[in-house]
Amino acid sequence: MALKPALSIDDQIEVLRSRGMTIDDERKAIIFLQSNHYYRLNIYFHKLMDTPDHYRSDIRFSQVIAIYENDQWLRNKILFILEFIEINTRTKISHYLALTYGSDAFYQKNIFKDPAKYGEILKSFSDAIIRNSKDPVIVHHQKKYAGLFPIWVIIEYFSFNTLSKFYKNLLEKDKKLISKDMYCVNDYLFGQWLHVLSIQRNICAHYGYLFRREYPIRPIIAKSFIWDSTQDNKLFAQFLVMRRLSDRKLWQNFICMISDREKKRRNFRLQDYGFPSDWRSYLM
User: Fold this and answer.
1) Structure confidence at residue 4 (pLDDT)
2) For the chain, which residues make up each domain, given as ranges?
């Protein structure tokens, strides 16, 4: 089966026109498509269609640009919030394990539940050592400690996803103490939230779309939230989790920026991200 032929920028614009999109500024559209290729934008195009291969009558290319730029802005702000959560989690877990089991905690297999999962995490760390073989920290520990690393060094080489798996594989008693000390939340909930946020972090770090995105893995939200549970596969549900795990001042600044952008940008519609009309009462 032959692949689709490549289209010039002019041809791409004509395809959009033929499907009912208004190209309200052709020069701007050309410039935008030259630096943001059609395939990357394709998900946005499809989100704005009323039927397969046809846009709603009010859709203009300038709207696509605005929505794309809103996603770009939002991804960067979310990454800033997730950075605090991720670093705080690394710090608290490594500090607890080091003081409880010693600096060589990572090599004590008996403090982990599943040997197979421990082996996967060990391999992940070993791969990171190879990739970062010239890192001064790695070189120092290879020379001075024969390739052994204290837990507080090891945990810094975990991806957020690996950090999530690492926490889940700890003994129940240790997970309970860590989650209670950090956020006064039960260990199962905290482990599930870490997994959800690690996926979101990867989406944002790899420039994935957020506009009208539906997430297959939904965060477990307390039933006390009086809110449409059918929307828990949207971005707003993850905001509820991020609020619970964030530094209060950072979070308030973040929400103020969200609110300000909503007022100033006509195409920044928070309902496109699953936000209810009274979203401030949940997030402030």
Assistant:
1) 85
2) 9-59, 66-283
Return the pLDDT at 53. 86
3-state secondary structure of 150: coil
Which pLDDT does position 232 carry in this prediction? 84
**Cα 132 from Cα 122, distance rounded (Å):** 15
Nearest 5°: CA angle at 114, between 112 and 117?
100
Q: How far is CA 63 from the centre of its chain?
A: 24
Alpha-carbon span 203 to 229, nearest angstrom: 23
pLDDT digits (tens, 9 = 90+) for 235-244: 999 999 999 9
Amino acid identity of residue 183, one-letter, is Y
Q: Over range 228-233, report the average pLDDT.
A: 70
Q: What is the pLDDT of residues 73-90, one digit of tens each?
A: 999 999 999 999 999 999
Write phi, then psi, for 59 (nearest 5 degrees). Answer: -85, 125
Q: What distance lies between CA 206 and its chain's CA centroid?
A: 9
| Helix spans in the chain (H) | 9-18, 26-35, 38-47, 61-101, 115-131, 136-144, 151-154, 160-168, 172-183, 187-205, 235-245, 248-264, 280-283
SS3 148: coil
Q: Which amino acid, 171?
A: L
> Residue 170 forms beta bridges with which residues?
112
